[in-house]
Amino acid sequence: MSDYQSREDFKYLACLLKSAPNETQAFIDFDQQTIKRNDGNIPIKTRELIALAIALTTQCAYCIDVHVKGAKRAGASLEELAELISISASVRVGATMAHGLLAMRLFEQKNG
Prior knowledge:
Elements: H1 13-19, H2 21-36, H3 44-58, H4 61-73, H5 78-108
């Protein structure tokens, strides 16, 4: 990773928790209740794969790190990861194409 993103940054979570305890704990609790819970209708492996797909499309290196490990712990296979990467890429490209269509429409509007 670059100097701007490092696994070492995770050690600052304790500092963040100390400096902004309510907000940081709210995030931790939200994460636990949405992604990490194993008593929901969506199995934990699926939750981790969904989170990983989103992390890939939002390009959050920290989230990719956490959710690759979570998916692996939950039993995801390398083949599932490979398919997920392509699905995520397709969604990202699809969003680019959709915004491209918007750009085409805006270009044709008379007020531009």
